[in-house]
């Protein structure tokens, strides 16, 4: 195939492709707003001083989002510094804290830049406009004649005044305007430029960087005894000897919830081990047979929603293809097990947590402890990468219960590795089924797609969503889950193809009952839906004898989608790579609303050990206006490698009595030995276009690109994940 | 060169006059052929071959660490120097692509390469002599359907006189073929034939032949000790057919421990063998030498009683060994600790702690046990960097006497010193 | 009380002999570098150097350290003055959440001290022990290679300024 050239004039500078398209330049970030509200999270929190405060101490910027290792601090600081015309270092950024920041819900779904980034961009811009107006009025000069630089407003005659001297405490306590006079992107000196992450130096020199590193002077160490399986209840625990162990300060019991507090951390670990050995449990219900899990899920009652029913003029189908895909439960696999700190002073409870949403966490902890929400403060402190809803919320809940029972001292709860692996809410197993009709030219004229899934979010669920609540004397229960509606979707995220398909029906079968604890993990249903859709696009292309890239372009009208597809193919050298050599392609626009990402990759030759290995991968991404190009690259590459790990290795395992993948020996994931030789990321910049978010964009196309490359190399189509050696062997590939 | 002189003496005893010897050691070269055409090999035959290849553990000796499967290049240590395994992929220039089935059959059965030269008996052809034509054809079919890989054989590095290949002809007169039960005895046929269990578990004489009178008495292999099998096994609890079959197919035996060292790769390959074949092997091996003697039986009963809490455990000593055990070993191995992915075998049952030599236990502590990157399975880090030689001695002494309840090893300090010298790990 | 040599200083710690070094470092000595990841010797987040060799501090009883020297990442450099390897991690922006970073740095440090010119294959093989969940592996490799190159040519050229420093401030 001759790869079509990019659809418009483009230039590649330092690996970043600049494309001029017909997007409005100035003010484009406001494009997503409705007419009567300012954009991003400013709509919910219009007060400017919710976002920016300037005083003698300097400039403080507030976000309700949190640093999860994705580079959020750096990117938001870049945005604020740019629009305020101050140096990067002049900004002090405060992240999610129920006492200080706006309630921006969860740091999830690649929403931080669209929501908080957009709010801060516009708020900062309006603050700068206010500063200019005040200075202009005091100097009796036209606003247009003034400039801002390094935190001062300057007049043409050389007079300058510092921002802090222009305003009082209340100046910024005013609602944002609907529209902002944003800087033209051409003037950016910080946004769009590589900015070293602010958090990395401490992380590589042993500085305090994580919640695990907090050590208030009054801190004591706690460990929680967890049941051996879901629903198990404590029958007996003789803790007399344990209470006498060195350093043990208190054993806290409420029903089947048991925790131990000790002076030293190792003493707490030893006390926990003694409790594990001493506890007698009534087992919970048996877990379903693992080998039949997909059929088990399909047999559960589902709530069905037709999320797409498109009926357009179309040719008759002359041939029909269908397929079914399965994916297993996958863990978040944080390298640092969850941790929570809490201090109860008799009235107020302060909780430090690395969970993704401090405000919903506050509500849950208030419910768990019976304290009024205004007596509970939740402060985000960075933890190990979470990639979604891992054990962080639960550990915070544990810490809150332990602190309430041990007032006056900060209690630190640290989960053990086996507790994290056993109790975290996994990304759910899923099944999809797809059927397509092709016309005489091989084009898809009819598309039918079904996706079956448990919920991809058990938050916010109040106290009933916290693990500790399930074990209390008066147990709390998880509220019945509800689907996340389109257009973002949960299990049906990305279930609607972006391709032009004249007849298309997509049905989401939402299964409320969950045999295994599940919740949100990076990409939610997008990983599976894109795997299914993009695998099947290849199946259709192969059926027609078409080149996979050409076939995609044939069905794609979105110009930005066409651009990333074309860019990935070009940089990979798709037209020169021999079919059959093990090359694969896939594309998606995350949520059909976020970043565009296309992947072309080459597998290494498949050996008799049945181990797949990616030799080279080329990724192209369009996240809208770039904030930190290196940040995007880091996220896209990381997303690819993590998704590759899911695809090649990962699956939660269990038997009737409980989860068995309790540590890394039972849950293998990517190590250095099976890395690609080469991984390239090419970014298309869209100056002035809305921020689309980046964190989850490469998660979905990765498994499809790998499965498609496997098909290219072997003519065998594997539709169940992971694509690990036993699966390849079973397929006769090794 | 004591061994070398002995080897020469054997040759002389073999009565080799120059002429007779030439006649004996000369074999015609089999003409190169084109590899079988694509599609000419019945898939069912290749699939059958795959099972035999798994049983034969062929991949292990013929795949270099990090190398392509079956492309050879593995250095095989012998008392006489290094041998390098050959490329058995169907590459015509460097592999067996130009080998006819007849040439392959001759090599498998008699150890004569296609070009007529003798293969060294590190390649266990004496065991393969009993393979049926059909079995060899299946193995051939499987190998010929692998991806050809160009990888030239490396030159062996053997001391004189072992570097004279022709002398193998005399060796063959003495030791070829191995005694292999007929196919009707499925377990014996496989274990003594394709699976060549004795190649590791039977001690060898001074010129590298298995001492059949001491079959399965245990032998040293690659710095490990392949323990005695059957009635002579040092395992605290005698093996049963069921547990041995489980072990062969997954490398884990709940009452014995985990496959480590060279056996780890064997069980990894056997995972792809036919379960019925593994049961047959297990029945044969578990039955070697008849039932365990009353002393062993009594010890097994006693060990089980201790583990179930009905008999007192051996007294545990204090000291540095106990501290290291508590802060390093017990974190995973504490009895009754079931929070890990694998329910670990109680160390009191670990075969390595009941063997006559501390070698295997030490080796595991030094190197650990590592599944393949993509594979779930028992995993243990090596402690070579953590523990000094004296600390190794301390912890092994503790494990041996206080955990396994066996009399102290007498050669512990020596073994630790020599093994640390052998393998100065990273 | 147990006396141990940490980062060149003799420290006296109140701990029982079997206490894993990790807990002594983090809890008694308030050092952040070594991280609790699994406590089972499977992930490498707790890696420190013992007599110059990398070990899992989570499985190293503190009572076994008499006469031996422990080094943690705190001994290499500081934010203000990072070591060449730390500098390379910063220059390559070789972290996302960074929870594995200190362990990665220490394992690579041990390698570069004995083999400053380590090849890519050697680096990959050595780093195999340590897990990263964010998928930052390629950058970590680049950082180690960069440090190896800098160390290899240390005598020939002055320490390299950060690649991106020019764009920062």
Key words describing this protein structure:
heterotrimer, A: 734 residues, alpha+beta, Aldehyde Oxidoreductase, domain 4, seven-stranded mixed beta sheet, six-stranded mixed beta sheet, 28 strands, 26% helix, 21% strand, globular, disordered N terminus, B: 426 residues, mainly alpha, Cytochrome Bc1 Complex, Chain D, domain 2, 3 domains, three-stranded antiparallel beta sheet, two-stranded antiparallel sheet, 19 helices, 9 strands, 43% helix
Describe the protein.
The complex is a heterotrimer of chains A (734), B (426) and C (169). With 734 residues, chain A is of the alpha+beta class. Among the domains of chain A are: 26-183, Aldehyde Oxidoreductase, domain 4, CATH 3.30.365.10; 213-284 and 332-423, Aldehyde oxidase/xanthine dehydrogenase, molybdopterin binding domain (Aldehyde Oxidoreductase, domain 4, 2-Layer Sandwich), CATH 3.30.365. In chain A, the strands form 7 sheets. Chain A has a 7-stranded mixed beta sheet with strand order 11-12-9-19-16-17-18, sandwiched between helices. Chain A has a 6-stranded mixed beta sheet with strand order 1-2-28-25-24-23. In chain A, helix 11 links the parallel strand 21 (444-453) and strand 22. Chain B has 426 residues and is mainly α. Chain B has 19 helices and 9 strands. Chain B has a 3-stranded antiparallel beta sheet, with no helix packed on it. Chain B has helices spanning 2-13, 18-25, 43-56, 58-62, 101-110, 125-128, 133-144, 168-175, 186-192, 198-201, 241-250, 262-270, 275-286, 294-308, 320-333, 351-354, 359-367, 389-403, 412-423; strands at residues 75-78, 81-84, 157-158, 219-221, 224-226, 252-253, 257-258, 368-369, 380-381. In chain C, strands 2-1-5-3-4 form a 5-stranded mixed beta sheet, with helices on both faces. The longest helix of chain C is centred in the last third of the chain and has 16 residues, at 137-152. Chain C folds into 2 domains: 2-75, Beta-grasp domain (Ubiquitin-like (UB roll)), CATH 3.10.20; 84-155, DNA polymerase, domain 1 (Orthogonal Bundle), CATH 1.10.150.120. Chain C has 5 helices and 5 strands. Chains in contact: A-B, A-C, B-C. At the A-C interface, helix 4, helix 6 and helix 15 of A face helix 1, helix 2, helix 3, helix 4 and helix 5 of C.
